[in-house]
Structures are given as structure tokens and as C-alpha cells.
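Hi team,

Filling in the usual template for the complex we talked about on Friday. All components are listed, including any nucleic acid strands or ligand strings, so the model treats them as one assembly.

SUBMITTER: L.P.
PURPOSE: interface mapping
COMPONENTS: two
RESIDUES: 718
SEQUENCES:
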Amino acid sequence: MQTLTVELGDRAYPIHIGQNLLARADLILPHLKRKQVAIVSNTTVAPLYLEKLAEPLREAGVEVIPIELPDGEQYKNAETLNIIYDALLTQRCERSTTLIALGGGVVGDMCGFAAATFLRGVPFIQIPTTLLAQVDSSVGGKTGINHPLGKNMIGAFYQPQLVLADTETLNTLPERELSAGIAEVIKYGLIRDHAFFDWLETNMTKLMVCDPDALAYAIQRSCENKAEVVAADEKESGERALLNLGHTFGHAIENGMGYGAWLHGEAVAAGTMLAARMSQRMGWLKAAEVARITRIFKAAGLPVDAPALGVEKYLDLMSLDKKVADGKIRLVLLHGIGKAIITGEYPPEKLTETLAAIA
Amino acid sequence: MQTLTVELGDRAYPIHIGQNLLARADLILPHLKRKQVAIVSNTTVAPLYLEKLAEPLREAGVEVIPIELPDGEQYKNAETLNIIYDALLTQRCERSTTLIALGGGVVGDMCGFAAATFLRGVPFIQIPTTLLAQVDSSVGGKTGINHPLGKNMIGAFYQPQLVLADTETLNTLPERELSAGIAEVIKYGLIRDHAFFDWLETNMTKLMVCDPDALAYAIQRSCENKAEVVAADEKESGERALLNLGHTFGHAIENGMGYGAWLHGEAVAAGTMLAARMSQRMGWLKAAEVARITRIFKAAGLPVDAPALGVEKYLDLMSLDKKVADGKIRLVLLHGIGKAIITGEYPPEKLTETLAAIA
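RESULT (copied from the run log):
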């Protein structure tokens, strides 16, 4: 088991990474204010892992309240959130009750937002069961739900007490979702860690067959990179925005295609390719570098071509993004592999040319 | 104009108190990140005060987006909150857009919660137009909505950039609501400020006729008292709970009678009387002190007798309260005027006797 700490002053918390951590009640117990937890999961994950987590807790005298949500991004909304609130209130949960998110990003985001807002905030533990959630939601404290007018429009920054990333849960992950997680892993290499990018090029095959050591290392380096960025900039005013490489384009793809058609990681991969091609148009990235990026995404089974939604629709959807400032679409672009920058200062035609070239 | 500062480190903010502050765009402008504000108000307050606030802002080049909610505690729910989200998203508001709450506690709580959760947090200015909101919601950062299973069950701690308490807005306040606000003012005297309680006994008549100087002093002392408590204990783990004198009983009254039947301040007054009578049963408060408390509430036009809901129903409703810890109902009680304590350690029969004596 590896452990790293996300440094956030009095809200610092540990991330444990390794095999079979789900059953380790001893890792959870020291973080409980009282022996009552509500485990928020979904109809796919609960049958696989709920009892593995719940039984050792019950044996240690903890009351376990299971809350099962429908599975899917389309349920990441106010109605599903209310399922959690209703269960917590009906079961008379209190401020000292700990919420545990057991599942992927959707479960984590919703459970985290419920924790942030139930009784104005209760303790929260993350047990992400997808690679994407392990390398992305584990660090940063972003929680929230979608709104019919945009993804993640309602939410809060809220930090967990503890994260357990159990690599065993990835064995039951559909291949397409494993790839989607790797998209975010590659992102850390691209934005700030050239050595990690090199390591990923060498070890992609191992990751694709779920080699536990390779996975643990990839998760660890991803979380370390994200933790360094987030510790310096918790509320996303500066450097943290670099983590959104490919996301402004990616959110437009997800929204434009209808949520659920593309996985988030797939949209980020195709979105990162758009950012790379625009960076090339700006003269910041060489053709050979764009080729390397294309190759690694392909090796990870990810799409490298964004859907042809049309320039106008892209611009419209991108302007909905939270990174808009004073009406300008700020973009994360690359100054080479391992070096990202954020800017709203670019010739607008570079963006429209990049989008027009999609077809 | 008087100004006090709520000390919360890098989230410290000023409260300005005085006449005709609504029209003082100069007080607001330095706090705006960009020249766009959404003013959240309701159908009662907007016709009276919206333009008085909006016009000078528009003249200063600020885009003003008015959002009007239905008026009443029964609308403090997820559906009404969504009116705010919808308007913000439809009008393409951004992270740098400031939300301004113009209204009483319901508007402030909902607008504050919208600010806390829209795009994971946007800047927020409070302009409370009721006495209750001026002396209560101005300080403390509590925001939220009700849930069918309990009041204020969903919410967040979120601090404003600025509070403007304009005493002129109290001239249009119904008498019953003025009294309800004074209940909270009296509370500060009772829990920690004997001198202020004495002042209130002397000046109650002035307050009841809206004498501006008396009002400004009462608001200032209330906010100062609350600010001192909150600065020491932002998240309500210790001393801050003392501010809930009368509230555990009061929430049970509000909930048991059906939200809206009793005003919050009325329920707090009757609830404080229950706390006083129980304190007397504990031997902590003298009969003469209970008589003084009864007299001042009566002078403020407030109810001193709680409704007879029955002991069981009271206990049941009180156990829903957020101050329950490990199943025990913690109560704020009085060790004399000006000295409150919080405790879960009391003979249960003292509570049931107090409740049984209501009839």
C-alpha cells in the first residue's frame, strides 16, 4: 500500500493506494466521529463491492446505512441528490455521521455534494472504484451535479477525510472506462510531468491489462501531480486551471453529443487533441509532438478525432464553460509536452480554424 | 453610517449600518469582480426597493439581472432555488458575477446557498431588509433551504463580501415581523451581554416605533455579539451553538405548527421562554429573572407561551434538530441573564416536565 497526503492545512487528508483496501475497516475507523456511516453507491457497484466494504465495518460495531443510486451520468442531477438527502433524513443521520462514496465519479461527485450540503456539511470518505475517479476525483474537492443547462454547474469545493484507491476494483471495470481513466492520467504527463509521459509511453500495455503495480504507480503519480497543483490553488484561480487541459473542448463534446454518449475521458482525449492542434497552429507544439500525443491516446484505446458539431455550436457550448472570464473563452494549451499554459489571449481565428478543421 | 468588520481571516467582511444605504452604489462597486450582478429578491420586496438599489448600479455601468422569487418560507425549497440557477445560467452568469440578496432571511438564505453552489461558488452581497435578517443572517455565513423532513437541512457555510443593513427598509416592515426580529436581538442580551439586555429593557418603546438611532444601535450590538461568537467558532462546534438559545424548542414549534404559521422570531421567543423555564427547574435561573424575560418579550409584542403540541411530539421534533449528538438532544440553557451554556447532560425529566407544563 502506498500513501500520499494532500496538503491543505487543517483539511489535509491521506490517499491510500493498493490492492484489497476495500475490506480494510482499520483504515476507515480512525476517521469516524461516531460509529455510523452512510455508504452511497449505485446499482452496478453495490452488488460487486458494497458488502466487502460494509461487513468489516459492521463487525467493528459501525452502523451502516446503504444508499443505492441509479447508475449513469444522466442521473447526476437534483432528483438523484434528493434520494441521498431523503435517506439521510429518514434514517436520522447527524452532523457526525460520515458519508462514504463507493463508486465512480458520478457517485463521488453526488455523495460529496450531499456531504457538503447536508446539515451544512458532514464528514466524507471517498472510495473511488473507477480509474478516472481514482486519478481525478480523489484530489481537488470538486463535488456537484449537472443542470439541464450545463455539466457540473451546481456544486461545492469540499474535501474528504480520506481516500481509498483499491486497484482491485479496476478488474471489473469495462475496458472503455479503463481507457477513459487513462486519458486523465496522460493529461498529467502532458501538462507538467514529461518524465511521467515518457513512462506512460513505455508502460501503456501494462496499464491496459490492469497490471496492479503499473496501475498503482500511475494512480500515485497522477494524484501527486494533482495534489501539488491543488495545494497551491484550492479554488481554481490560477495554476489549477491547467488541470482542465482538453476539458473546455471536452465539455462541449459531451454536452453537444448528449451526456452519456461519450465518456468524460473520451471527450477529454479528443478535446486534448484539439488543444494540441491549436497549440501547433500557434507555433507552440511541433508536429512530432502532436504525433506522439496522438499515438499515446490511440495506444490507450481513446478517440483522437472530435465529432463534427460545427464551429458555431462548439463556440456556443464552450462559452458555457466555467473558465469563461469577461466573455472570453480561456483555453489550456501546450508549450510542448509537459508544459501547459492557460490563456484567453489568442487570435480568435486560431480557435475557429482548429474547430473548422475537425470535419 | 456605522461599520463593523466580521473577522474571518481572508474572508473578513464589513457590515455597514445606517439610513438610505440601498442607493449607495459606491459601497458596492469596490466589491465587484466584474460589472455584472444578479439581484435576488421577492415579489414583496422588489416593488419597494429593487429600483432604488438597481438604478445607481446601472448608472455606474453595472449590468443588473433581477431575479424575483415568490414570497414566503414555504418557498424556501429546491424548486425555488432552481429559479435562481435557471436565471443565472440562462443569462450566462460567470464565476465573477456577484449575487446580491435583497430581502429577508428566506431570500438571504436561498441567494446565499445559490452563491455557494453556483459554479461551485460565486461572490455574494447581503442586503437584508428585515430586522431579523439584519441581526441574524448578516453574520455567520449560514445559507440553505428547507427539506420536507426538516428546516434548513440542506445548506452551506458561505461568507458574503459585504452586508448593507439599511434601517429605512424597516419602515415598511409589518409590525409582527419587527417584533420577530427583536426576539433575536433580545437573545444576544440573554446569552452573553447583560448590559445590552438592560439597554433593551429601557429602549424597547423606541425600537417598537422604529427610531432609527435605537435601531442602528440594536443592530450594531447584535451583529457585534454574533460576530465575536462566529469569529471564534465559524462552523458551530462550540460557543456558536449558544446562538441557538430557544431555537431547538423554536424549530419544533415552527415545524409542529406547520412552517409559516409562526414567524421564526415568534417561535424563538416562545422557545426561549421554554429554555428559561427549564433553566429555572434546573435551579439556574431565578423566578425574578424569568419574570424579566417574560416582560421584555411581551413588551416586544412577542408570544411567551408555546403551543401545546404534546410532550411526545416536542421530543420527536426536537430530535430532528442539527444539535443532536449521539442521539442526545443538546439544549442551550441560561445560568442567569447574560450567560448561556449548552448541555446534553440534564435529567431527562426536567425537559419532559417543562414540556408537560405548557398546557
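MY TAKE: The first helix of chain A runs from residue 25 to 28. Chain A has a mean pLDDT of 94.

Thanks, L.
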